[in-house]
Specification:
- The protein is mainly alpha-helical and 335 residues long.
- The chain contains 13 helices and three strands, in the order H-H-H-H-H-H-H-H-H-H-H-H-E-E-H-E.
- Helix 8 (134-152) packs parallel to helix 10.
Length: 335
């Protein structure tokens, strides 16, 4: 009970400090500076986009993380969120302009790089950002709350929020451009949905954090909050459908693996090392890495595909990557 009262008193003191005019003025000045479209912001956008795009093309998680660290898109998002809450049109306008210009510039750069490199197919890092689900919305909301709190609490480094949120913003923007470079509209649309999900989730969460911190009143924040909630709610249907499909795909992959391992003669003499399913192709492609002493024939693959279609109720394309196993022993000793 004493602990609960102590926490409540600390929170009330925190809110009172934040509602003081000098704190509000300082926050607005900081956010206005962060939301201004200047050469430094453009330079960071260009550099982050180039690194992220090459990381996506090379399917390198480490390189993508490097781009996430320097991505500056979170800064104007916080500005437009606070500007909307306070009715500060100048701050809101600057934040929107910076986000739109940064987004379009990153899409254009990724498109140009995609056209220049011209990979025949994309790896898992790109494909993973084409089917957002409710899980991505949850990540965006949590990250947006951290970002808003980092701005409201000076003890927390300002780079913490930018680093956390960039994880969700720059890579899908680059995937939009890469999809356009291949004329892959489904890939670009999926990445666009992910970007909008993260953008709205972050904005909503920042608004709620600023409201709870006492920087604005509920009466003033009511209308912009309702608009943001309504826009976010529009995304719940496609995200919910994608989440249900994700669960269904996971169940199908487990069933497919069990059927192959336990109910086929072919896999009695194979060692399955890894399996990966590409659900974007029609029919889905299942890539199976196996070890075998004897070669796997096309006829065996055809029979397995027919068996899986009967068992699963839908066709799959099976692609085997076979590593030959050869037994080598020392020569028998001569008597």
């Amino acid at each position: 009970m004493v602990l609960g009262n102590n926490i409540r008193d600390r929170f009330e003191n925190f809110r009172r400090r934040r509602s003081q005019p000098r704190h509000l003025q300082q926050l607005q000045m900081d956010l206005l500076a962060e939301s201004t479209l200047d050469p430094s912001y453009i330079t960071l956008i260009v550099g982050s986009c180039i690194i992220a795009t090459f990381g996506l093309l090379s399917n390198s998680t480490a390189v993508i993380i490097g781009a996430m660290i320097i991505a500056p898109l979170m800064l104007p998002i916080r500005g437009l969120a606070f500007g909307a809450l306070e009715g500060n049109f100048t701050l809101f306008r600057k934040g929107v302009i910076a986000v739109v210009v940064g987004t379009l510039l990153a899409v254009a750069i990724a498109y140009i790089l995609g056209m220049f490199v011209r990979l025949p197919s994309y790896g898992s890092e790109i494909l993973a950002r084409s089917e957002p689900t409710l899980l991505d919305l949850g990540i965006a909301v949590a990250a947006g709350g951290i970002s808003g709190y980092a701005k409201a609490q000076p003890k927390i480094s300002g780079s913490l929020a930018g680093t956390a949120i960039a994880v969700a913003l720059m890579p899908p923007i680059c995937v939009i451009g890469l999809g356009l470079s291949q004329g892959n509209w489904s890939l670009s649309l999926g990445a666009t949905l992910l970007y909008l999900t993260n953008l709205l989730g972050i904005t909503l969460s920042c608004m709620l954090t600023f409201l709870i911190a006492g920087y604005t009143s509920l009466s003033r924040a009511h209308k912009p909050l309702m608009w943001t909630l309504a826009l976010t709610a529009v995304l719940l249907l496609p995200l919910g459908v994608s989440f249900a499909r994700l669960v269904r795909q996971g169940q199908l992959e487990i069933s497919l693996r069990r059927a192959l391992l336990n109910r086929t003669v072919t896999f009695q003499r194979l060692q399955l090392l890894n399996s990966n399913t590409n659900w974007l192709t029609k029919p889905p492609e299942v890539r199976l890495s196996v070890r075998a002493k004897k070669a796997v024939t096309p006829r065996q693959v055809q029979l397995l595909e027919e068996f899986i279609e009967r068992e699963m109720g839908q066709p799959f394309t099976l692609i085997f990557e076979v590593g030959q196993v050869e037994e080598i022993r020392s020569a028998d000793p001569t008597p």
